[in-house]
Write a structure and sequence with these properties.
The complex is a heterodimer of chains A (302) and B (269). In chain A, helix 1 packs parallel to helix 5, helix 10 crosses helix 11 and helix 10 runs parallel beside helix 12. Chain A has a two-stranded antiparallel ribbon with strand order 1-2. The termini of chain A are far apart. In chain A, strand 1 and strand 2 form a beta hairpin. Chain A is 73% helix and 2% strand. Chain A is an all-alpha fold and 302 residues long. The radius of gyration of chain A is 19 Å and the shape is globular. Chain B has 269 residues and is α/β, with parallel strands linked by helices. Chain B is built from eleven helices and ten strands. In chain B, the strands form two sheets. Chain B has a six-stranded mixed β-sheet, sandwiched between helices. Chain B has a four-stranded antiparallel β-sheet with strand order 2-1-4-5, covered by helices on one side. Chain B is globular and about 45 Å long. The two termini of chain B are 29 Å apart. Classes of the chains: A mainly alpha (302), B alpha/beta (269). Chains A and B meet through helix 6 and helix 7 of A and helix 2, strand 6, helix 3 and helix 6 of B.
């Protein structure tokens, strides 16, 4: 087998996977802080991506020198508002209700958001026009690397670092970690759980928007991008539902797995191997390691 | 009591889920700068009393349905846990609830999430390490793995970071070795004296609590059944019998002779 091609598949997988890892990070945060499985993550991706595309098109029209970067930045700002409002309007009232109720709320949000996206931006495939990244690829050691992949990895990496610093060194980040660990104890210190939940939703919106924007810049944008980001599920199952580093690693592994299975198995099972492989893997993985690689099993002192 | 009380609980009634009555007619006063102990058996409602003061009750679907709680003259029984904490009340909840995955120092820093003017986090951290020198040695260890005594120190230190005027301590001695209990109570009384923090202490260890607090309340099945100075309570035959494990004559008592049900009835009528 051609080693270069194999390496190419792996490299692509890592780069696409970093986007999955980024979205998974946002997903894990909500789960960690509030115990809610957010099934609307794919739709957050869609909203962020379409918003970014709209701003991008507008900036191109007025001849802005840095259209994509600025569009992304403005989208992130909008995410703060959207994340806050979503939490405040739809989820705040459900604090203290059974978790299942809240999960059903996210299912509801999923359809509402999807409907809104269709309503506002129609269901046709839209593309970033002119393309954000030029198509002439880098060639590193014989491996062809597309620019859009490389930049998505750069974006994912920088956001990881920013979030890491946020959690490690700011009082807000510490409050979020504390709430994830023991909500009652956090409350007893006067930490505002509302703030923590809103922050989690804001960050989820942000990661989803960046992920969506890059996925959209790569393939064009339609409803299926939302389904693509459902891949966070196998990613977080692999990493352990409440591990942030696990989400990142899980995302990358799923990316690689997708590319490799497409590359190795597609000749034998033509069609959708690439799309199903992560889920088959998730099922198998759950059978043997239900907590994922780094999921919490409570610390018990001996 | 000469000075105005810092906390005044007036005849409160507490219900969970709007139907389960857990406290009825509880009244407690804590003098400014004082230590008050709250004694009682399991399920008597001591923790619920603390939670109704700190506002944590609301997060367990409980509510103060009658009576009132006043802190420095302001009614707080309708306020949220966050607002109450801002006013200067902190509860150290039962069972050494450290944030297991954070280090000891991060745990303590969480207590300083509210920024105050003029006081840096560093100063407050130094203050905590001054009272709990042991924590300074363990500062970079993961809190889930330090010893029980150190975890208890961590949660008290963490509470100290919120700059409390009133600290509600829920069974700080639970599950700790006698030596450690001694050490922790020394620090708590030191905090009380030097930082002028008023304390409401819930304890199952009645002997210890009566030594630390000059005044104590005794609870049983959701109501206050006794309220007196610690000296008087120590001499009370019922207290001796139920809480201090002694006979009327002062000797140690055999558990074979305990007939709780007979004497308990006297308080419930």
């Amino acid at each position: 087998m051609d080693l270069t091609l194999l390496l190419w598949a792996v490299a692509n997988g890592v780069m696409v996977g970093s986007i999955y890892g980024l979205i998974a990070l946002g997903w894990v945060l909500i789960y960690k802080c509030s115990g809610v499985l957010n099934l609307a993550m794919g739709e957050l991706t869609l909203i962020g991506a379409y918003l970014c595309l709209t701003i991008y098109t507008f900036l191109i029209k007025i001849g802005h020198p840095l259209p994509f970067a600025s569009a992304l930045f403005l989208t992130l700002l909008a995410c703060i508002v959207m994340g806050y409002l979503t939490e405040r309007i739809f989820l705040d009232r459900l604090i203290g209700e059974p978790v299942l109720t809240v999960i059903m709320m996210t299912v509801g949000l999923m359809f509402v958001f999807r409907g809104l996206v269709g309503l506002i931006w129609s269901t046709d495939t839209r593309i970033f026009d002119p393309p954000v990244f030029s198509y002439d690829a880098f060639i590193v050691g014989g491996i062809i690397i597309e620019r859009v992949y490389l930049w998505s990895m750069v974006a994912a990496l920088s956001l990881w670092i920013i979030f890491y610093l946020f959690f490690k060194y700011t009082p807000w980040g510490l409050s979020m970690q504390a709430t994830a660990d023991d909500e009652m104890a956090a409350l007893s210190l006067g930490i505002s759980v509302r703030f923590v939940y809103s922050a989690a939703w804001i960050i989820a919106f942000m990661t989803a928007a960046v992920g969506g924007a890059f996925l959209g810049a790569k393939n064009g944008l339609n409803i299926s991008v939302g389904e693509l980001s459902l891949l966070v599920l196998p990613a977080v199952v692999l990493g352990g539902l409440n591990s942030v580093p696990g989400a990142i690693v899980g995302g990358i592994v799923i990316g690689v797995l997708q590319e490799l299975s497409g590359f190795l198995l597609d000749p034998y099972f033509p069609g959708g191997v690439k799309d199903t492989a992560p889920y088959v893997f998730m099922v198998l993985f759950l059978l043997f390691k239900p907590y994922g690689l780094w999921g919490w099993v409570r610390i018990e002192r001996v | 009591m000469a000075t105005d009380p810092i906390l005044k609980i007036n005849n409160i009634e507490v219900k969970y889920h709007e139907v389960i009555l857990v406290l009825k007619g509880v009244s407690i006063e804590i003098p400014d700068g004082g230590i008050v102990a709250l004694l009682g058996a399991n399920g008597a409602g001591k923790s619920t009393t603390l939670k109704s003061i700190s506002g944590l009750l609301k997060h367990e679907d409980g509510a103060v349905t009658d009576g009132s709680i006043e802190f420095e003259g302001v009614r707080i029984d309708r306020k949220s846990a966050e607002e109450i904490s801002k006013m200067g009340i902190v509860q150290v909840i039962e069972g050494r609830r450290v944030f297991e995955h954070l280090t000891v120092e991060e745990n303590i820093k969480v207590g300083a999430h509210r920024r105050e003017k003029g006081v840096s986090v560093k100063d407050k951290l130094d203050k905590v390490y001054h009272y709990f020198p042991r924590l300074k040695e363990k500062r970079n260890e993961v809190a889930g793995f330090v010893s029980g005594g150190e975890q208890q120190m961590t949660v008290v230190g963490r509470a100290l970071m919120t700059n409390p005027k009133l600290m509600l301590l829920d069974e700080p001695s639970m599950g700790l070795a006698p030596m450690l209990i001694h050490e922790i109570f020394n620090i708590i009384t030191q905090l009380h004296r030097e930082e002028n923090i008023s304390i409401l202490l819930v304890e199952q260890n009645a002997k210890l609590a009566l030594n630390v607090a000059p005044h104590a309340y005794v609870m049983e099945t959701g109501r206050i059944v006794m309220d007196d100075s610690s000296e008087t309570l120590r001499e009370n035959p019922d207290i001796k019998d139920f809480y201090l494990g002694m006979t009327d004559k002062g000797g140690r008592k055999s558990f074979r002779d305990v007939k709780h049900y007979k004497r308990r009835k006297r308080w419930l009528s």
